[in-house]
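ok so dumb question maybe but i'm new to this and my supervisor (M.) told me to 'just get the structure for Uronate dehydrogenase' and walked off. so i did the thing. is this what she meant?? sequence i used:
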Amino acid sequence: MKFKKLVLTGAAGRLGSYLREPLAAMCEELVSSDIAEDIGKLYDGERYQKADLAEYDQVAALMEGADMVVHFGAIVDEKPFMELLGPNFVGSYNVWEAAYQAGARRVVYASSIHAVGMHKKSDFIGIDAPHKPDTFYGLAKCFTEDLGSMYWDKRQLESVHLRILSAAQVNNSRALGSWLSYDDLIQLVTRAVDTPSVGFSVIYGVSNNDRAPVDNSKASFLGYRPKDNAEQFAEKVLAEEGPVDITDPGQMCHGGPFAKVDLGESGIAQMTIVDDKKET
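this is what came out, is it supposed to look like this??
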């Protein structure tokens, strides 16, 4: 089945760069959007439309005639609340409301483990774990998951919320459990798009890691079957990192460094993320 029109927000971001080509192949028209001036060379069937998520009229203009929206646009770090309010909170409302008004069927949302980041990894939480955000950033993910639930209950707008753990190169011990490879990311998003009926759904974005700290079994109907396993990196990572501090919430909680930083302080600054964005 080929969709008439899909919308991708956050297309200029690292994860968005890997989603553009497979999404373009699934539809007649892919409208990629971000606040950047351009995103370089476009794929067949793709066009770029700049839009600020905090501005409803700009978001609504993206949605005209859309079948589904893949919403990856946001500030992807902890910041003071007022800096996140526009893009991460108001932006989510704008996406859902504009999608509903345009008659779209579904929103696929890049949620995050940070919605439940203060849960301990040893608890092996499932998709029904109560919200326990580690930051204002995580709180925005909780807000949007609840927003999606409400729009399904009240307006029958479907949504799939992808609680991504860590989609980045494996260079620390936390990532041995939390890694989501780019190939598995693509599979995760495409299954969220092409599954016939999803209602309101939550699923963890994590690869088939031996040390995965979450339980995805209740979301198996979405058809996501990850292939990659971070264990291939374990010997090197563990030798380089050495023993961890078991009193450190950054080691013990799902949120990693985000569980440790003060509210409003960058979590990304505590991490070593390689910017291996896909080039067109």
